[in-house]
Write a structure and sequence with these properties.
Elements lengths: L2 H15 L10 H4 L3 E5 L4 H18 L3 E5 L16 E3 L14 H8 L5 E4 L6 H8 L5 E5 L10 E3 L7 H17 L14 H5 L2
Parallel strand pairs: 1-2, 1-4, 2-3, 4-5, 5-6
Length: 201
């Protein structure tokens, strides 16, 4: 572990101790979001996969305003849509040398008062960890067996390990089920189960 990673971890643990989150009641917590923050992954491959699911995310959380938060210094101009989403681009001057977001950047996000944070990172990131801890009252959603409490108050487990497409699909399908009580309809190939059916076995 590098020095900057060790220092970032200590600072995150210090924030964890002071975190006091609200209990969430489901499915109500998913039904009326107003401001949703989607933490995008840092890899271009994962971003390309996430782009395919943006209409699903938009439909899932409507009529909320959805903001897409990029990882530091990731260029997304040619990847993300220009309409329908508020894209928050993170620049190097908004991040400290440890990889944690600076205080003024966190404060600028807090002014938007996000009530839901969806983390689509599949790998650990001190930057995203700090963002999640900045919204203790929000519904914080992420992949199971990843960061866990206190970063998430809703974890969605999936059997897929590195299949990004099916990981994201499973997560969003489960959110849809929690919200409505129904799984989205899929058209599987003849004789094969859908990724959702496979993930629930």
């Amino acid at each position: 572990m590098s020095l900057k990673t060790a220092i970032a971890s200590v600072r995150l643990r210090r924030t964890e101790k002071n975190l006091k989150g609200d209990q969430k009641a489901f499915p109500d917590a998913l039904r009326n979001p107003k401001q949703v923050l989607v933490c995008l992954p840092g890899g271009l491959r994962e971003l390309t996969v996430v782009k395919q699911f943006l209409p699903t995310i938009q439909e899932l959380f409507k009529p909320a305003t959805i903001s897409l938060l990029t990882s530091p210094d990731i260029r997304v101009a040619d990847i993300l849509p220009r309409k329908g989403f508020n894209v928050i681009t993170t620049t190097s001057d908004q991040v400290g040398w440890t990889g944690l977001p600076k205080k003024n950047f966190i404060e600028s996000l807090e002014k938007i008062k996000f009530d839901t944070v969806l983390d689509l990172n599949l790998d650990s990131s001190v930057f995203t960890s700090a963002i999640l801890l900045a919204f203790p009252s929000a519904l914080r959603i992420g992949r199971g067996n990843h960061r866990g409490i206190p970063y998430y108050n809703l974890e969605i487990k999936t059997k897929y390990l590195r299949d990004e497409r099916n990981i994201y699909r499973s997560m969003l399908d489960i959110l849809q089920y929690i919200k409505t009580g129904q799984f989205p309809e899929r058209r599987p190939k003849s004789g094969s189960a859908t990724p959702l059916e496979e993930s629930c076995t």
